[in-house]
Amino acid sequence: MSRPTFLAIILAISISLIGCSDNPEPGSPNNGTITAKTEDLTIRSDVIHSAVSKVNTKTIVEADPSNWLSTGRTYDEQRHSPLDQINDKNISELGLAWSWETNTKRGLEATPIVVDGTMFTSGTWSVVWAHDARTGELLWEFDPEVPRSWGRYACCDVVNRGVAAWEGKIYVGTIDGRLIALNAGDGSVAWSANTVPADRPYTITGAPRVVDGKVIIGNGGAEYGVRGFITAYDASNGDQLWRFYTVPGNPDDGFESKAMEEAATTWRGGKWWEVGGGGTVWDSMAYDPDLNLLYIGVGNGAPWNRYIRSPGGGDNLFLSSIVAINPDSGEKVWHYQTTPGDTWDYTAVQHMILADIEIQGENRKVIMQAPKNGFFYVLDRRTGEFLSAEAYVPITWATHVDSETGRPVEDPQAHYANDKKRVKPGPLGGHNWHPMTFHPGTGLVYIPALDLAFDFAQDNAFKHSKEDWNTGIDFRTTAPPTDPNQLIKNLQDIKGFVTAWDPKTQKEIWRVQHATAWNGGLLSTSGNLLFQGRADGYFAAYSADNGQLLWETPTHVGIMAAPISYSIDGEQYISVVAGWGGAYGLASGAPRHKGNVLSKGRILTYKLGGDLTLPDPEVTYLAIPSPPKMDYSLAQVSEGQDLFHQYCAVCHGPGSGTSGPVANLFYAEQAVHDIWDAIVVGGAYTQKGMPNFKHALDSEKSQAIRAYVIEAAKGTIAFCESDYRKQYPELLDTACEIPVIGGE
Ligand code: CA
């Protein structure tokens, strides 16, 4: 392939990143575009509308297994399908029924909704699709036309985790902060509400939930500096009904609720409201209709660093907490904080599951969560009473959770105010947003777990900036080690697995160890099956009772999203959205295990006797080209390395050579080097997805970064030509070459 063609590919990839205006505004008045994709939609839209009209409290609670009416299937969010036509005896007959290309190369994280044979899914840039769930035919597509420039505020990729259905409408939260109600029949906009203040970098990635006619939506943005809240809107017309803030604002301005007055006593000495405080509710919710309690998971602090955020100490409520709310009024009923005074990005937004289980001879109504901090929690969901917590992954920040107080006992080895400390779990958590599942038959909770460490160090020069991450952490520590053996060890230490966890005894029953980290969410079924898409580009089924691998099929792209199951005319289907990216995938590249590449995203649907096969991608591998000549000093390289890891690494990857969806700078053409400052400082590539950094970098600093990138490319080429490459191909291929797929 000629160099210009290759450059075009790199630019094409980065074009999809961000794009239009230099001064983005959230909640753009643009109503988006609806495209009818099937000629007979006018006939079918009445049928679809009529089916979705029946989605309400009663049908979600009844949970007909042929449908998947809510993101967690049921309000208790167990993500278990009672269907058993596909089971551990006939799983070898499972094959592809249909596949549909999303035409995107950014992250796909959504759990689809299925209502009487129609599938509603969301994708990159908050686009919504309706498909015939039997054939995969696209019925309509809605594009909210999010300004691409807003993508710079999406810490963890421009993803969306799914839609909600209620009484004839489909609801989606957009990356620029809107909540949009679509008429289910044809995807036309019923109403649109801006849910976030314009002067802060909020984003929405989570799926809305609908409770008793109220659409509940949170948001993200704590890395950039925002104040967390969730809001309830009238499902029929978009009127705001209530808003619950998760952290206090400036106490001098008064308090919105009694809960905020209570919370403010636990924040001490800092001006957290200037950065925002954090506590965003960006993913998980659950609802108990009998208790009439809505459970929300609350995120990390902004900044992460508590020594800066609240230097006088304190628990900083309601960061890293599970909060139970009365959905009628939006008032807090109880809370439980998993990480008091969080300082490691330990969100408690992770998937929460409600179940009734017997503990010490007593039937308990519990809520269960495996938050980022690495402990698996079982609480009484009526009162928030702490029942138990044990580590489900290796943990170094705390020794244990005290069984009397329910509070973690911190290990001072994780306190980084004065020295750099390596801590487990890292900011990606022992478990991130990837959904778990609870199988009522085995009584086990299955967790897609991560085992990753991170070097925390205080950023002593921290200053709030609206354009950058505001963590109070010195990201220069993320630069890869120069010792190759240490680098290999760090790569080997990136681990992911599924743990089958007994919530009664708080013990692991079995584990499936995966090749690498950031594997997909889970689905269990009454066919004794556990389904998971993996980071290595395979979709797999395991035995739910013992973890044995029963079936797997290549998907040619890593999978993060959770599968679902549904049936049409008595035939069971398993469906999953495949597409790599997210917080880890964006910067780390596509794992190359088992020949995995980075194909376009797809919705993949399987059934017994399905006989389609995915075409094998035609792949060409490109090694890193020799970098252009530049005169620079070692001091410049060193300065450039620091600046790169401060400003660039969260997207381009530590070490600057990502092979993920963001441009790999090692492959930058001479033409790019020629206008380097115009891109980095001047914003010449804003429309191609690269924001300008004029608020932080001048020409001298920009050139120091260029010197570092060139020096790092030279070092990586030498490393890739060494014997290490032959010894550890699966670890190093992703850093040493880029797979380019023909026809894409
Ligand atoms: Ca976070």
Report strand order across the widest sheet.
Answer: 1-7-6-5-4
Helical stretch count? 15
Give the total of beta strands. 42
pLDDT below 50 for ≥5 consecutive residues: which ranges? 1-29
Q: Which sheet architecture does the biggest sheet show?
A: 5 strands, antiparallel
Radius of gyration: 24 Å
What class would the helix/strand composition place it in? Answer: alpha+beta
Shape: globular
Intertermini distance: 14 Å
Quote the beta fraction.
25-35%
Q: What's the helix and strand layout?
A:
Elements: H1 3-15, E1 33-36, H2 41-53, H3 57-62, E2 80-81, E3 94-101, E4 113-115, E5 118-122, E6 128-132, E7 138-143, E8 164-166, E9 169-173, E10 178-183, E11 189-194, E12 209-211, E13 214-217, E14 229-234, E15 240-245, H4 258-264, H5 272-275, E16 277-278, E17 285-288, E18 293-297, E19 301-302, H6 306-309, E20 321-326, E21 331-337, E22 352-359, E23 362-369, E24 375-380, E25 386-391, E26 398-401, E27 408-410, E28 421-423, E29 437-439, E30 444-451, E31 454-456, H7 484-492, E32 495-502, E33 507-513, E34 522-525, E35 529-533, E36 538-543, E37 549-554, E38 564-568, E39 571-578, H8 582-588, E40 602-608, E41 619-623, H9 634-647, H10 649-652, H11 670-674, H12 676-680, H13 699-720, H14 723-727, H15 729-736, E42 737-741
Parallel strand pairs: 2-34
Antiparallel strand pairs: 1-7, 3-40, 4-5, 5-6, 6-7, 8-9, 9-10, 10-11, 12-13, 13-14, 14-15, 16-19, 17-18, 18-20, 20-21, 22-23, 23-24, 24-25, 26-27, 28-31, 29-30, 30-32, 32-33, 34-35, 35-36, 36-37, 38-39, 39-40, 41-42
Helix pairs in contact: 9-13
The structure holds calcium ion.
